[in-house]
Amino acid sequence: PKRVVLITGCSSGIGRETALLAARAGFTTIATARDPGRLAGEPFEARRMDVTDEESIAGCLAGVIADHGRLDAVVNNAGVANTFTSVETAGMAPFRAGFEVNLFGVVAVTRAALPLLRATGGRVVTVGSTRGLIGQPFNEAYSAAKFAVEGFLESLAPMAAATGVRVVLVEPGPVLGTAFGANAGVTRESLLAEAGPYTEALTDYLDQVARGGHPGAQTGRDVAEVLLRALTDEAPPFRIMTSDWGTEYARTKLADPSGAAVLAMTRSLLLPHTLDLHRRAVLRTVALVDAIGDEQWKQPTPCAEWTLAELVE
Ligand code: NAD
Predict the structure, then answer these.
(1) Do 312 and 173 sit in the same domain of this protein?
(2) H and E: helices and strands count for the chain
(3) Whose CA is nearest to atom 19 of ligand 1?
């Protein structure tokens, strides 16, 4: 029988691209969205699922089992950018709303799917983010939720493996051309209007982002290809970075327990410069981290005094 994969958040972006690739690769592909009418006419089966609504999740999965008799994989893709401002000025509501989709959505869908996946020896594939490994300014709510996804899945993975279910996390860096930014429903003006003490830093951050040219940027299709591998490879690892850039970026965190290397990189996002400065700061940080031997990391924080000026010389 054909393997059945269910993907969340398929109205746009990475989810839609993944559904197209999975259908072409021969999966019975259940593309879910809050408004599945938008998916009519595509080569996959569209069903309604709101990942923040447990009844909607249960109803959708029951329908899949009734019609197809099995579930071999879920792809937790639905996500929201929700806020590019600060929790201090924006308040708790957008923070909680982001967690509802980005963390609790993943937890609820995974929880509901696990019994079905045990029956097939299936897998849970989840779209994380490099921002779930390294925090970023003006991404507090988003990063915090994606960090939490890491903790949830890293804890679940050995338990799931003990019952024959594989857990895989796919970690994209920046992705261009999806509806992610637009879906956040904010404008430069609306963000700056409530930035309070962070107005200057946010201006520089938004300027950098608007100038574009991030060295690690990928398309939704690039990420979808990695997700397809996570679905089809015999034994994918727990964590898959989608680019060499992402691998280098995340490595600094693991290599420097003091956190100084990460701050040196991410502070470069708050300067009135182009992303090229951020790129240079990251590359230099990676080189410095590489140059420090394993033994030295056991000494007190060797890179605590690195300054941004040194990094981007
Ligand atoms: P996108 O906005 O195009 O896709 C996200 C989809 O999730 C949208 O179709 C949206 O309608 C859907 N969604 C939102 N709330 C939902 C809910 N309650 N129930 C069901 N669906 C819901 O953006 P994308 O870039 O394709 O994002 C997909 C995933 O990739 C997200 O998990 C995102 O965090 C992650 N990601 C994105 C980037 C990026 O830079 N765009 C980088 C790393 C990771």
Answers:
(1) no
(2) 14, 9
(3) 50
- Tokens matching residue 86: 């600060």
| The last residue of a domain, from among 219, 242, 265 | 242
Which ipTM value was assigned to this complex? 0.99
pLDDT digits (tens, 9 = 90+) for 155-198: 999 999 999 999 999 999 999 988 888 888 888 898 899 899 99
Tens-digit pLDDT profile for residues 36-66: 999 988 899 999 999 999 999 999 999 999 9
Measured CA to CA, the distance from residue 35 to residue 267 in angstroms comes to: 39
**Contact by Cβ (8 Å): 255, 288:** no
Q: Check if 142 is active-site.
A: yes
pLDDT digits (tens, 9 = 90+) for 89-129: 888 998 999 999 999 999 999 999 999 999 999 999 999 99
Is 216 touching ligand 1 by the criterion CB < 6 Å? no
**218 and 285: one domain?**
no
* Consecutive H or E run containing 171: strand 166-171
Can you name the residues that pair with 76 across neighbouring β-strands? 126
Same domain for 207 and 249? no
* Pocket mutation for ligand 1, best pick of 127, 226, 245 (most atoms within 8 Å of C-beta): 127
SS3 labels along 91-152: CHHHHHHHHHHHHHHHHHHHHHHHHHHHHHCCEEEEECCHHHCCCCCCCHHHHHHHHHHHHH
Place of tokens 């309070």: 196
**Chosen domain end from 183, 217, 242:** 242
Clarify whether residues 90 and 218 are in a common domain: yes
Which pTM was predicted? 0.92
Domain span at 313: 244-313
Mark whether 177 and 260 lie in a shared domain.
no
Q: How far apart are CA 7 and CA 22, in angstroms?
A: 10
CB 123 within 8 A of CB 165: yes
CA of 130 to the centre of ligand 1 (A): 14
The answer to whether residues 92 and 170 belong to one domain is yes
